[in-house]
Design a protein that fits this description.
Spore Coat Polysaccharide Biosynthesis Protein SpsA, Chain A, 7-stranded mixed sheet, 7 strands, 41% helix, globular
């Protein structure tokens, strides 16, 4: 198995057929697989999963939504690929851009090192309909995390993320929320992984279906406090 693409889905029933269509070329490549995680959805995602009939698309169900990180973990540890790629199901990042990370991986200089960490860098935020609040909270997390870990970190939640599967055996702590992005990023920084960031658009208006977990100011504040707490959990792990 070459690459496992893991996508947690929360109430993304209408996005899933679009995703599968967009990833047709990826799925046609020998040795690739897609793992879709029903992360405690309350819509008809579970029924849709039962109708999927393709050998290299596997589905996993989580009964209760605990957080993005929890659902992602369920998929990551079922992955069989030598490399693991993960992202969201909300279509705010075009799958074509997500698959660009694989082209970067095929660069010989990266494959030789075997310790690679390829991560998207979301650019032109205002052009992609980010509010000033979105940008403020994103930069606040960047600054606080950089201070806590004494490592230069930026666009912590930039996706997709691509890394060797063996990295899963090395990390000791996996947060249940979006801080899982931070846990992977910090580990790669501390352990001298070759980190490659590449620019892509994260367009807030491309989310046709579903609601974001940080769609209001109160949710953003709550998520920020939780991630601050997780910073120290990751630091002590």
């Amino acid at each position: 198995m070459e690459i496992s693409l893991v996508i947690p889905c929360y109430n993304e029933e209408k996005n899933i057929p679009l995703l599968i269509k967009k990833y047709t070329n990826f799925l046609n490549e020998k040795g690739n697989e897609m793992i879709l995680v029903d992360n405690g959805s309350t819509d008809n995602t579970a029924k849709l999963f039962k109708k999927l009939n393709r050998k290299n698309i596997r589905t996993i169900s989580v009964k209760k939504n605990i957080g993005f990180g929890y659902g992602l973990k369920k998929g990551l540890f079922k992955a069989k690929g030598k490399s693991i790629l993960y992202s969201h199901a909300d279509m705010e990042i075009d799958p074509t851009d997500i698959l660009h990370s694989i082209k970067i991986l095929h660069n010989k200089k990266i494959k030789i090192k075997k310790k690679y960490f390829i991560k998207g860098d979301r650019i032109d935020k205002r052009k992609n309909y980010w509010s000033w609040n979105d940008i403020f909270f994103s930069w606040s997390l960047t600054i606080i995390s950089t201070i806590i870990f004494r490592k230069i970190l930026f666009d912590i939640h930039g996706q997709p993320v691509l890394f060797p599967r063996r990295m899963l055996k090395e990390i000791k702590y996996f947060p249940n929320d979006f801080s899982i992005d931070l846990a992977f990023y910090v580990y790669a920084k501390k352990n001298n992984y070759q980190i490659v960031r590449f620019p892509l658009n994260f367009n807030k208006k491309k989310r046709y279906f579903g609601i974001g977990s940080s769609s209001t100011i109160s949710k953003k504040i709550k998520a920020s406090l939780e991630q601050l707490y997780q910073c120290f959990k990751i630091l002590l792990s």
